[in-house]
Amino acid sequence: MVYIKGQKAWNKGIAGYSTKWKGRHHTENAKRKMSNSAKERVKRLGIPFKGMKHTEESKKKIGLKSIGRKPMLGKHLSREAKLKISKANKGRLKGIKFTDEHRLKIGIANKGKKRTEEYKIKSSRLRKGLHFSPKTEWKKGEMSGSNNPFWKGGISKEPYPFEWSDNLKESIRQRDRYICQLCGIHQDELRGFNRRLDVHHIDYDKDNLNPINLISLCRKCHMKTNSNRDYWINYFKNYET
Description:
43% helix, two-stranded antiparallel sheet, mainly alpha
């Protein structure tokens, strides 16, 4: 029997047929026969499915049909199944670097998600006792202190002046309308531990508390300004003008 695209399945509409085999399982012999049959069909027709990619139209159709489906909702994998999945996935992502687009998608997907206390405890336990590899530890030691290309003589350890207060920092955030002046994110959108905007010294002088020399940045953007200082000084000075 040759299947023609669009034709109805022979068993469609037969009452009780769809539930007849529910809960039953194929024997190992039957599974082997079906597998061999499928392999022969692929060889005969020359349709190797491995490596084939869906068209954009096909992806959209699959996505629309998948909306609202939660096949694993309420189901729990056995410990044996979890171990098998873990072994199968081990090393698959090693050496793979995500694209900026991929990272952005992951960020959007995780945005606003709240972790349960149970999840936080489990995550903490998993990380407990983890150590850096000897190679990483060596790199950390080699790049610390005066060996680091961004070393400025230890000025980061110098204390801030007495006038550097929470009220001053809050006034700068208020002046900048609680918006990061580099990426444009609002303070209310920040997630994680750093839910307040940092206040950055444009000329990197801790003693210069002139409001013109202070600017609001999110932690991510603030970290960027730790390198290539001459560039950022000129950037923010031109930004102000």
